[in-house]
Amino acid sequence: MATRSTSTGPLRRFAKAVRRAAGWRPGAVVAGPYGTVMTYAPKPDGRPDPGEIVWTWVPYEDDPSQGKDRPVLLVGRRGTNLVAVMMTSKDHDRDAADEARWGRYWMDIGSGAWDRQRRPSEVRLDRLIEVEEADVRREGAVLERTIFDRVVAGVVKHAA
């Protein structure tokens, strides 16, 4: 069971400011790009829900007929499908300016149970991936709400 911190540290204040700036309120639904409905809704029912990290097939951008099985963070729904942002353990902070020049934006989300080696992970904010529920291979973990809120604010800003 997840526990909730009652601290009012700088990260918590920052997350609150981001949510306020994005119009986010507890239980709020954010209208995202391309008709995506983004809301934090993880449920321990064995089915994939927004706010959860799962594994699925992600096509390569330059050749959608190819791709690889990788973790994604589910950020919302579009119709009956799930909408996700891809994850990586590769550190893009070192080349953030070059990535941004090519229209790629990344956000650190830390480490968690989705990676057996507990490596720090990043999510890509500018590329939304539509996933059918049947294509989810396995669930990895539930992302903390404050981090999810930061990711959604980044997606709203960068995915167009």
What do these coordinates show?
The chain is globular and about 40 Å long. The chain has helices at about 10-20, 95-100, 145-160; strands at about 30, 35-40, 50-60, 65-80, 80-90, 105-110, 120-130, 140. Helix 1 crosses helix 3. The longest helix has 14 residues, at about 145-160. About 30% of the residues are buried. The model is unreliable at about 1-10 and about 20-30 (pLDDT under 50). The strands form two sheets. The protein has a six-stranded antiparallel sheet with strand order 6-7-5-4-3-8. A two-stranded antiparallel ribbon has the order 1-2. The protein has about 160 residues and is α+β, with helices and mostly antiparallel strands. The N and C termini lie far apart (about 35 Å). Strand 3 and strand 4 form a beta hairpin. It has one domain: SH3 type barrels (Roll). Pfam families: PemK_toxin (PF02452). This is PemK-like, MazF-like toxin of type II toxin-antitoxin system.
List keywords for this structure.
single chain, SH3 type barrels, alpha+beta, six-stranded antiparallel β-sheet, 160 residues, 8 strands
Summarize the structure in short.
This protein has helices at 10-21, 96-101, 145-158, and strands spanning 30-31, 37-38, 52-59, 67-78, 81-88, 106-110, 121-131, 138-142. The protein is of the alpha+beta class and 160 residues long.
